[in-house]
Amino acid sequence: MNFILRLLLTALAVVILAKLLPGVSVDGYLTAIIVALVLALLNFIVKPVLVLFTLPVTILTLGLFLLIINAIIIFMADAFVGGFDVDGWLIAIVFSLLLSLVQSILFSILKSD
């Protein structure tokens, strides 16, 4: 039940950010839920592998390369989901940063209940 609620909150964050950021578009609420599910799967399966392979670069850049890895995850979700579009690297990095911020705010509200 907690996973479904977190998934719906992530979908809500995706819709809000798509309305705020000019380079991000989502066709509808169902597409946002699919994007949230794909992001959850990519963060669970692909991100640890990318972090492991790029560990020397991540250490060399003091962790800033994780922003690029997050942008790659966003672009992969863009490739997998048809109604979700992200235009450019800078927008993907800003989207991933803001998505993490909004998720942490929404999940902290969820945890306090």
Automatic annotation (TrEMBL):
What keywords were assigned to this record? Membrane, Transmembrane, Transmembrane helix
Write down the superkingdom of origin. Answer: Bacteria
Q: Which InterPro entries match?
A: Phage_holin_4_2
Q: Which is one Pfam family of this protein?
A: Phage_holin_4_2
Bilayer-crossing regions = 28-46, 53-77, 89-110
Query: What's the protein name?
Result: Phage holin family protein
Annotated organism of origin: Christiangramia salexigens
What are the top taxonomic ranks of the organism?
A: Bacteria, Pseudomonadati, Bacteroidota, Flavobacteriia, Flavobacteriales
